[in-house]
Amino acid sequence: MAAPKKNGMQTVVFQNPPVIISTASVVGSREGDGPLAGTFDKVVTDTYYGEDSWEKAEQRMMFDSMKKALQKASLKENDIDFMLAGDLLNQIISSSFTARTMGIPFLGLYGACSTMYEGLAVGAMLVDGGYADRVLAGTSSHYCTAERQYRFPTELGVQRSMTAQWTVTGAGSVILAREGSGPVITHATIGKVIDMGQGDSQDMGAAMAPAAADTIARHFMDTGRKPEDYDLIITGDLAAFGKKLTEELVRQKGYDISNRYTDCGILIYSGSQDVHAGGSGCGCSAVVTCGYLMGLLDSGRYKRILGVGTGALLSSCSVQQGETVPGIGHAVVIEKL
Amino acid sequence: MAAPKKNGMQTVVFQNPPVIISTASVVGSREGDGPLAGTFDKVVTDTYYGEDSWEKAEQRMMFDSMKKALQKASLKENDIDFMLAGDLLNQIISSSFTARTMGIPFLGLYGACSTMYEGLAVGAMLVDGGYADRVLAGTSSHYCTAERQYRFPTELGVQRSMTAQWTVTGAGSVILAREGSGPVITHATIGKVIDMGQGDSQDMGAAMAPAAADTIARHFMDTGRKPEDYDLIITGDLAAFGKKLTEELVRQKGYDISNRYTDCGILIYSGSQDVHAGGSGCGCSAVVTCGYLMGLLDSGRYKRILGVGTGALLSSCSVQQGETVPGIGHAVVIEKL
After folding, report:
1. What pTM was estimated for this model as a whole?
2. What is the DSSP-derived secondary structure letter of residue A229?
3. What residues in B contact A7, CB-CB < 8 Å?
């Protein structure tokens, strides 16, 4: 049963914190060459993954990550009550087509690159609320599908600005359950859509930073906690420029997170990989959370992490029509009790 | 607090059924000329609604419907805990940009034309579960934005097949609350993605019918109810051909719904309006539910309705890559106690 949250608050506190009983991640070769290489379940070196389009390759990666998560927990599809998923492709086809194969009752989500954390937050409410014994939450992105949908045909080889980020090729999936062993989700802070007027679609980190900062500060206000209550605060895909901005914006709101804050988009690639500002995409926070963060908790190195999925809510159409880029951030507390 | 559903079931039963305390709908001129004209809150005759693009017009319609729903309930934005919305446009920009203006913590959904019912189902779980006192669920579609995104530039005047449906221009919004007066949501049945191999993107009704039929039959199996327990069973946007198919598929599963079943896409236009098979789009089930169905319940004519939002989970890309069209259906029981 849930603790009713007070009016005006954005944070839900779970009374029976849902357990992360299994996670799995599948990534592409660039991610497999990066510093987190050892934390992924599978590295796929062929960008087509044996399929005849990158879109189908992305679907296959999501499918693989879901099957792997089930397998690790010795579960089958019909042990799962709901599948929650979303991705960057128009009409979230990676998720819908994977749901067609999985055959699990499906709730489609869209939070751009914040989708993994939206799925964890909503999934945790469905489990804690007693509507599901187990939910499967997942997401994916693929450099080649995202690049050609949002920007240019990859074959053009268009020069990228230094603030640009590299869309992670990867899929991550999490099984949340009412019972079992693993880290638990104790809180979820649902973010507002915030737009400070950033209109450069080559600088998503700056577009998302205000929303990330707002959600982080709101989380502290709602819970009465301080940055020191967390071993790690990690955003999804703000990368180098967005991270700096977020740190500063959170400081302006009265909280210094600098000595315990990093970003999945910074961790996933090394400086020598020529990805400019860092990683992005739905897969970025998903595979870092499913691999690296779970490892930190399992090893006992960290006890309590504040993860903040971040999303830039643009479309090619909105950019072409002169709109600025709104951002969103959803935070989830993951804790090893 | 929620009734835990049994393993393998797709239906959630609410112990404290969330109340529909307010609904509002805004539609375009074709819908305003149709048989349900008197049930909408506002008819907008200019396809641009005073904006410089159809996309911005659609956003304004969603915004208007949300403001109107708040106004009818004498509520303000900060009385709402979460906004749940989605739409057909790439990266659900109608919803994200409206959420930017509303300033309510936002959960983006994507269920194609089933989105209103996905929002009602998830929203009801968040309210019944104690995570929110009130949620605002909404969606929108616009003939001109959908047509140019999914099919052809409207200026081309391409001939349409007789199975084609007309995307409803309209937005509908619902406020669900823990307390208040109005019809209540007692059950939600979350659908699976089903694809029977229909590949004609000019016949969405046939693509969605198997999923709708599956959800309807599953609802009866889960609850032990029969068609006769409902005054009305209504699907979202299957229109003439899809409705016939659904009726037959449900009959094959052992239930005869023929004498109490209709479809929002059939009701919204008259035969003389030259819309071929009928209406479709996220707005279709939304505005019919927010207007006409609420009226039936309020007047006491009907006591209990099974509404089934239906969605075709295609994208231009998936069609171009030769994929068939998967469908989904989410059912919600709306009852005047």
Report:
1. 0.97
2. G
3. 79, 81, 133
